[in-house]
Amino acid sequence: MKEWIVRLAGEIAPSGSEGRIASVLLDAVQDLADETHMDALGNAIATKHGDGPHVMIAAHMDEPGVMVIDIDDNGYLRVIPTGGLTASETAFRQVTFTNGTIGLVCLEDGEKRPEQFDQLYIDIGAKHRQEAESRAFIGLSGVIGGSVTEVGNGRLLGRALDNRVGCAIALQAFRDLAQRGLHVSVVFTAQNAPGARAAQAAAFALEPDLAIVVDATPASDVPGGKRTALQLGAGPAFKVMDAGTVAPLAVKQLVEDTAHALGITLQYEVWPSGRSDTGAIQLTRAGILAAGISYPVHTAGAAEAMVDLADVEATLRLLVASVQAYRK
Amino acid sequence: MLLKTLSEAFGPTGFEDEVRNVIRGELEGRVDEMKTDVLGNLIAVKGAAKPGPKVMLDAHMDEVGLMVVQICDGGADAGLLKFRSLGGIDPRVLVSKPVFIGPDRIPGVIGAKPVHLQAPEERQKPIPMEKLYIDIGAKDAADAKSVVKPGDAAVFATRYAEFGERAAKGKSFDDRVGCALLVEAMRHEVPYPLYGAFTVQEEIGLRGARAAAYQIQPDIAIALEGTVCFDVVGAPSHGQSTVLGKGPALTVQDAQTIADRRFAEFMWETAQRHGIPVQWRRVKGGSNDFGAIHRIGKGVVGGSISVPVRYIHAPTQVVSLDDVENAQRLLQAVLKEIAEGSFTL
């Protein structure tokens, strides 16, 4: 599991530029899937036909990033955010673009602190426009943050752990369930960070009986933590509500019963400002039974996050067993 | 001239009838079928039974405007109209502008306290919309109420005119310029099913386009827009969005869409092949109907072609007629290359 997480987090996939990681993920299920494809919005979809109700497992593969909108005569770049990055968390950090170009995000001279992206510029070491244009173009996307490191206590820290951890869990869950002969699809969704824009298209196409979304949720056991009861390392969380969904009680019961049977301590996610793929899927077509199983992280939706591998393992076990226990 | 007629038509968000009638008249006999849906979108169809990708072109008919919310009853303000905006309008552009209320075009002027009477601190900041009113010259409340009701909408009373070097000024180029491009495109023949959606209520959240795309279920969609352009005083290159006269603009990312890079590059390269000037739209703020369209059904491939509009959402907007012409050329070239199979789904 850890190997998969590290490998997937090594991929650079800002929202809208998920093509490469989509190929990696579909290659990893090709041997078991009956059908795989990428759809018009960039979702990577694999289906294994089998027994019982059709369950869709979803995890977004994109991460927040920046996109080049200007190259000046001196070879400096200007960017806009893709997803929820703020100017202040982007400033003074390295940016790695999808084409391998690396640069430093700098603040315009005289500005005290970065509040808006138009105060920032990116230095890629180019001496003039022509050189910069050979390494960057308008519309090129990049990401902020460092590679994944194990920091002790079975905890990982690094860029894109939200939600490559979810991708690794969904990938393993699909493999496990497909091998058991169940009717299951996995969707690695695109464009979640700018506001859950693509997941509904996959749900529209698949029309599953049940969809379960795996994503990160912010743990509150931190200084100034918001009023939820989520702790890192205390196990998976059932998404009771976020900004886009309130969970169907039947699925909550299913997951609670499954957690109890497995002896897994279940936490409860109540995240009024979070926007996950769950809500987008739930409101597709005439309504789709959809819920979220989340793993706690320190800093969700930011460039970097910390996760606990024990939570990851428990989330995977809970997900697989919940799908197995589901009856239409 | 069609752009002049469309620009001067009355069509604030939710009141698109007059614009729709102009377009319907222009396309009568030139398309196989036209229908107005329940929200008011006008959908023109050509070659529905033809093979090949179903292509949807979109332009929104509505413009930003004002809505009367109250007719003041007593005191010094009797007969003056309080209003709110329909769509995003900077209150700083409103003071002392002439408007027309309703399709009967009741003339009015947006009034405000003159500079002589303003306290020093009032002069330091823009007059908020709540302190502005529309004066229709009524002698009292009863007089005003005989011609205007709360809920009536108003538009800027701007006439279209050409000026300078290939420039035009007028109201509502956002998005009557797109409507004009789309009317022209629907007059041409293509070997695949072509749907022209003239949509409603874009300015308050891309509301009409969603329903239009849902009923069309296109394979490819292109929104035709008038978009923000600030290539003037003190704007650095990264703060311009687009430059007037440098050709139609293609979106890389806006508030509702991250461009389908493959389709954006297809359009860019089509422009290069046909010798048509083209530029990227370089700002995150703002959006267009493609933001709603691409999320419909199983997802829709496509993008947008935008004409730069200076002073967008203001009473008098400015476009380059060269940009309009080049946007038309680019649209025709893209439609032709789709027919030739240059873009594969």
From TrEMBL, chain A:
GO terms for biological process: proteolysis. Binds 2 divalent metal cations per subunit. Zn(2+) 2 binds at D162. It comes from the Bacteria. Keywords: Aminopeptidase, Hydrolase, Metal-binding, Protease. Its cofactor is a divalent metal cation. This is Aminopeptidase.
Automatic annotation (TrEMBL), chain B:
One of its GO terms (molecular function) is aminopeptidase activity. Gene3D superfamilies: Peptidase M42, domain 2, Zn peptidases. Zn(2+) 2 binds at D174, E203, H313. Binds 2 divalent metal cations per subunit. Keywords: Aminopeptidase, Hydrolase, Metal-binding, Protease. Its cofactor is a divalent metal cation. GO terms for biological process: proteolysis. SUPFAM superfamilies: Aminopeptidase/glucanase lid domain (SSF101821), Zn-dependent exopeptidases (SSF53187). InterPro entries: Peptidase_M42 (IPR008007), Peptidase_M42_aminopept (IPR051464), Peptidase_M42_dom2 (IPR023367). Zn(2+) 1 binds at H60, D174, E225. It comes from the Bacteria. The active site is at E202 (proton acceptor). Belongs to the peptidase M42 family. PANTHER family: AMINOPEPTIDASE, AMINOPEPTIDASE YPDE-RELATED. This is Aminopeptidase. It comes from Alicyclobacillus hesperidum.
